[in-house]
């Protein structure tokens, strides 16, 4: 190995050491995290467990193993569900260690033009050229609406055209819910008045995938908030939360997006900043960690975090909801990992579902375990994801539920595919907002 190569390797080792070593050293290797880890359970490999990955990060930070050859794959195969943090008796910040490793691995790949794992190049193009641009995302969503409305999707599915490009994308395209007409889209900058005596003013974060592909859920979210006494603002200038960028190691891009969102929501003057996607909400609630070394932005981020709420928290706080219809059948709930493990929100969704008139709520065994959606994990590591999903669907089937409820768009698509794979013909997957809106006769 040349002196120049050694110097370069030392640069990345030093950066990993700076970003993660102190946190990684907190791990006492007790193994409490092992039963909580879906990839350890499905793969049975210590390198695919939290303590195994932490140990690999420590070794890489000490220069004992190679970042790309030895660390990149185990880190890439992590779902990032962070259930290990909840299980950990000494509060090891696994998310910090995981994202530090992602950042350094991605930086070395970029600067040394190392060939990234299969699919990463396409993923990076999508993250950098689509998600940060609202107009492009909405154009993509509107094009999907036209694709579905004209019936072209049926022809494409019959001919398996999408499958020829990507088998995983073909599978998810089949279960994609109908995209709502562009004519029903809310506009950024809109203000929606309360439909009952006003209790507070809130600013709504529509997200990326939710805004582009599931805008109906966002519209229903706005109407539910109006029904419990909220004036709802859709701030101009907001964009992607940056979660997918942070999870793939693009921390500078994540910080750039975070700053734009903080500025947009600060200007709204709202009491709360509301979101309806567990993954997005987790990122929004950790903006303060993004800027821990930036005094000015850390203070602004902390203020932003303190006002951030999931839709279920606000509906419970301001409820009861104005229910008008009886629900028929059994409902079960699949936790969003980031809503439960990062935001600490688990009882509010259950409380809301138990309050739906006529519904029978049945708790699913292992509802707190990851469904293996993992942002875009199910597209990049499809086989690994489906192994975990299929086991999840065994538990879902045992509840006899006709409705499986989630609180995150990725989880929603994952559960829809799980229903199809498991031949649960009489079951459907819905976002919790869809269930509550239907029971309130909001369409």
TrEMBL record:
Gene3D superfamilies per UniProt: Alpha-helical ferredoxin
InterPro entries: 4Fe4S_Fe-S-bd, 4Fe4S_Fe_S_CS, Cys_rich_dom, Glc_ox_4Fe-4S, Helical_ferredxn
Entry EC no(s): 1.1.99.14
Top-level class of the enzyme under EC nomenclature: oxidoreductase
Cofactor(s) in the UniProt record: [4Fe-4S] cluster
Note on how the cofactor is bound: Binds 2 [4Fe-4S] clusters.
Magnesium found in the keyword field: no
4Fe-4S ferredoxin-type domain location: 17-48, 68-98
Keyword Iron-sulfur among UniProt keywords: yes
Catalytic activity: (R)-lactate + A = pyruvate + AH2; glycolate + A = glyoxylate + AH2
Keyword line: 4Fe-4S, Electron transport, Iron, Iron-sulfur, Metal-binding, Repeat, Transport
Source organism superkingdom: Bacteria
Pfam families: CCG (PF02754), Fer4_8 (PF13183)
Function statement: Component of a complex that catalyzes the oxidation of glycolate to glyoxylate.
Name recorded for this polypeptide: Glycolate oxidase iron-sulfur subunit
Organism the protein comes from: Siminovitchia fordii
């Amino acid at each position: 190995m040349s002196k120049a190569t050694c110097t370069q390797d030392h640069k990345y080792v030093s950066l990993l050491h700076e970003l993660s070593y102190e946190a990684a050293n907190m791990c006492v290797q007790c193994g409490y995290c092992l039963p909580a880890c879906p990839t350890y359970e499905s793969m049975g490999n210590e390198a695919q467990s939290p303590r195994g990955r932490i140990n690999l990060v420590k070794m890489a930070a000490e220069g004992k193993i190679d970042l790309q050859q030895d660390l990149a794959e185990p880190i890439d195969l992590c779902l990032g569900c962070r259930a290990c943090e909840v299980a950990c008796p000494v509060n090891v910040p696994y998310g910090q260690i995981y994202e530090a490793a992602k950042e350094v691995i991605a930086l070395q790949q970029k600067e040394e033009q190392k060939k990234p794992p299969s699919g990463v190049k396409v993923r990076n193009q999508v993250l950098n050229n689509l998600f940060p641009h609202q107009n492009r995302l909405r154009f993509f969503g509107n094009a999907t609406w036209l694709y579905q409305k004209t019936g072209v999707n049926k022809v494409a599915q019959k001919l398996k055209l999408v499958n020829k490009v990507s088998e995983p994308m073909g599978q998810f395209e089949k279960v994609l819910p109908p995209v709502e007409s562009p004519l029903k889209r809310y506009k950024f900058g809109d203000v929606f008045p309360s439909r009952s005596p006003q209790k507070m003013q809130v600013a709504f974060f529509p997200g990326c995938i939710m805004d582009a592909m599931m805008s109906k859920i966002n519209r229903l979210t706005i109407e539910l908030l109006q029904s419990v006494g909220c004036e709802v603002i859709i701030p101009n200038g907001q964009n992607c939360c940056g979660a997918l960028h942070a999870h793939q190691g693009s921390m500078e891009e994540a910080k750039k997006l975070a700053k734009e969102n903080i500025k947009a929501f600060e200007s709204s003057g709202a009491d709360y900043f509301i979101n309806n996607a567990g993954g997005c909400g987790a990122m929004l609630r950790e903006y303060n960690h993004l800027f821990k070394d930036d005094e000015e932005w850390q203070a602004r981020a902390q203020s932003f975090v303190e006002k951030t709420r999931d839709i279920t928290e606000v509906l419970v706080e301001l409820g009861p909801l104005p229910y008008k219809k009886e629900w028929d059948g059994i409902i079960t709930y699949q936790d969003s990992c980031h809503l439960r493990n990062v935001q600490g929100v688990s009882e509010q969704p259950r409380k809301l579902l138990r309050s739906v008139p006529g519904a029978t709520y049945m708790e699913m065994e292992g509802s707190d375990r990851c469904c293996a959606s993992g942002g875009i994990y199910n597209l990049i590591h499809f086989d690994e994801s489906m192994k975990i999903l299929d086991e999840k669907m065994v538990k879902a089937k045992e509840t006899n539920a006709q409705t499986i409820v989630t609180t995150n768009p990725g989880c929603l698509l994952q559960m829809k595919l799980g229903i199809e794979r498991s031949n649960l013909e009489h079951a459907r997957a819905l976002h919790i907002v869809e269930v509550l809106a239907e029971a309130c006769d909001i369409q």
